[in-house]
Amino acid sequence: MFTGxxxxxxxxxxxxxxxxxxxxxxxxxxxxxxxxxxxxGLGDSIALNGxxxxxxxxxxxxxxxxIDISAESLDKTxxxxxxxxxxxxxxxxxxxxxxxxxxxxxxxxxxxxSHFAPVGESWELRVQVPPELARYLAxxxxxxxxxxxxxxxxxxxxxxxxxxxxxxIPHTVQTTALAELRAGAGxxxxxxxxxxYVERMLSTSQIGLAAN
Length: 212
Known about the structure:
The chain has helices spanning 71-76, 131-134, 170-175, 193-211, and strands spanning 8-17, 26-31, 45-48, 51-59, 64-69, 85-90, 109-119, 122-129, 142-145, 148-158, 161-168, 186-191. The chain has 212 residues and is α+β, with helices and mostly antiparallel strands.
């Protein structure tokens, strides 16, 4: 479990195939900030661009760790190739502050950046959201973009799902990998857990009404 508050920015410095077919995943080596993994153990969870991964090896003296990512996860995420900067967040502990919102680290889909530009002291990020996720987005609701907990400022429905607009304060741009985004880039999206349950409750209540 995570909060969407990024605690470090790393870079994927190596990628090795775990097999010879498309059904095999990869082993990624991530370089992280100094001392970032001092309190991390083997088997701990760290989210990379919003995708929950398990630490498989640690090299604290080199400020590096590795994760194994399955072919399924590679197919359902973006921004996890060698050379990419990645937002890092360690798993939530019971006594931590919930500074963002409840994030599971399971990517629901991939959006596409349609606009990213400065507005005053801040930045406006607009993302095209696929149809299967569009119904979960609402004005002032929460969305996780590449692991970052953000607030939706506008939702515009369109034939391809919807486009959401998000305001990024300078601190967010400076302390995450979102600064590298450009129009056309893919981003990992995770919808708000509460929205997921609301949709389920509404759908089952309609089934109950139909049965009666």
